Amino acid sequence: MPLFGNTFSPKKTPPRKSASLSNLHNLDRSTREVELGLDYGTPTMNLAGQSLKFENGQWIAETGISGGVDRREAQRLRRRNQQLEEENNLLRLKVDILLDMLSETTAESHLMEKELERGPAPGGNEAPEDIR
Questions:
Q1: What DSSP assignment string belongs to 39-63?
Q2: CA 29: distance to chain centroid?
Q3: Which of 7, 110, 111, 126 gets the most CB atoms within 10 Å of its CB?
Q4: Alpha-carbon distance 80 to 91, whole Å?
Q5: Any residues with CB less than 8 A from the CB of 38 and at least 6 apart, and which?
Q6: Model pTM greater than 0.85?
Q7: CA 72, CA 106: separation in Å to the nearest integer?
């Protein structure tokens, strides 16, 4: 036992004050918006004279500069671009098919020329077109 009493006896700490003395956290969202003006609206920005607003996860032009494209025109251009890409894919497929047909015809033509150079087959009077 220590001579002058227990030296390690810390003083009790006073109770903590509440984190916020305001009762705003008790209000519902609509009341807070009315009281504090928290209705921000949609985010907008201005870039190079063009005003943009953020709606549904996309930036949409509100007002355009001369030469700017509005939303309907952009959608029309996207649809037209999609149609042209599909048409381009179809035309590429047709070109591939035509090239395959051309290579097959060329190969058959070379085979026929070689058969004609050899001469007629021994023992037969068949025309080269009938030999396959």
A1: ---S-EEEETTEEEEEETTEEEEEE
A2: 35
A3: 111
A4: 16
A5: 32
A6: no
A7: 51
pLDDT at 24: 66
> What was the pLDDT predicted at 90?
98
Tell me the C-alpha to C-alpha distance, in Å, between residue 46 and each of 49, 51, 65, 93: 6, 4, 11, 45
Q: What angle do CA 103, 107, 108 make, to 5 degrees?
A: 120
Q: What CA–CA distance (Å, rounded) separates 76 from 81?
A: 9
Query: What confidence score (pLDDT) does residue 66 get?
Result: 46
Q: How many CA atoms lie within 13 A of 67 on its CB side?
A: 2
Distance CA 128, CA 122 (A): 13
Q: What pLDDT, in 10s, does the model give residues 35-90?
A: 776 666 788 888 877 888 888 888 887 765 445 567 788 889 999 999 999 999 99
